[in-house]
Amino acid sequence: MTTTLIDPAPHGRAWVNEALALLEQEAARSADTHLLRLDFPGFPGIAFYFKDESVHPTGSLKHRLARSLFLYALCNGRLRQGQAVVDASSGSTAISEAWFARMLGLQFIAVMPACTAPQKIHAVQALGGQCDLVEDPSQVHARAAQHAAEGACHLDQFGLAERATDWRGNNNIAESILGQLRREPQPVPTWIVCGVGTGGTSATIGRYLRYRRLDTRLCVAEPTGSSYVHGWRTRDRNAVASQPTRIEGIGRPKVEPGFLFDVVDDVVEVDDAAAIAGALQLESLFGTQYGGSSGVNLIGCLQLASAMRARGETGSIVSLLCDRGKRYQETLFDPAWRAERGLDIAPWQAAIARTLDTGVLAAPVTA
Ligand SMILES: Cc1ncc(COP(=O)(O)O)c(C=O)c1O
After folding, report:
1. I need a surface site. Which of 24, 230, 332, 345 has the fewest CB within 10 A?
2. 172: Cβ below 6 Å to ligand 1?
3. Strand pairing partners for 48?
4. Any atom of ligand 1 within 6 Å of the Cβ of 201
């Protein structure tokens, strides 16, 4: 009788095992992010919740994604010891990926638009990552693919975010939110609101709501005229943005492959000036600065809440605080930067204050 000996660690697998163990240890050391509650005088009977994703070690919701992308690459046999890692990003994902790459002892290349907030570029570099800055933002995917052709492992957040995340559970963002709402008066939210970059977050939330058979609807809040707004309304995957946005991370110029139209129940549009005013409002509400996409989310919540109030509905609305505002000190939070770009936020600040007080969506009034 002959016995076939199975190699206990086929070529290269010992390192993969070690890398997977490191990722598992990191997850075990990490705490969940907070779900913060707000109530406003204008919206009696409507509770607002904000999932603070800025408290992840790398400062944004992309910490979850970066961990999933590394796991996905390792478990698909695409990432090997000593291999460089590359991805295209508007910055937040790159920071998280640089952090995990350093943890695994891998070289990391971030392909980012040259206009990315300087603090994000510095954060990637501080973590040992290399930034390949591209003048034309529409070229980031092509440049990342070029690095991959030269041997780097392409983490490919835009191609893989939607499938690398465990949408049925494993404490994904939707499972975490719903678990944290368990003891609240309205534990099943009326709406969950989020923006779209890769489409991974909206896909995970939308799928999980169906999987759990909940009536909660998913609303995508996007910069005015983004590709996702047009694409969702016309169901056209070739839709493009009708105007650019200054809000990083969301509002893509074209519909990315991970955006699932069919799990989204509504889409609302938010002007850049309103989003920045929203971010400043969040700072006064929470005492912490969050980025522009969090401002978009706040305005999206107010649009939905005022419609609920007009219909006499009560319930709860959940959204995300996606990343730290500190990253945008030289951009969104700098009055001179805003003035140079004609972004007048004062009328929006007044409109937000009126909306919070009255529950009726107020339009900005310019002098
Ligand atoms: C900074 C930032 N990046 C990305 C996203 C979108 O996430 P995803 O890439 O999962 O669609 C958001 C969402 O709100 C965001 O705020």
Report:
1. 24
2. no
3. 38, 317
4. yes
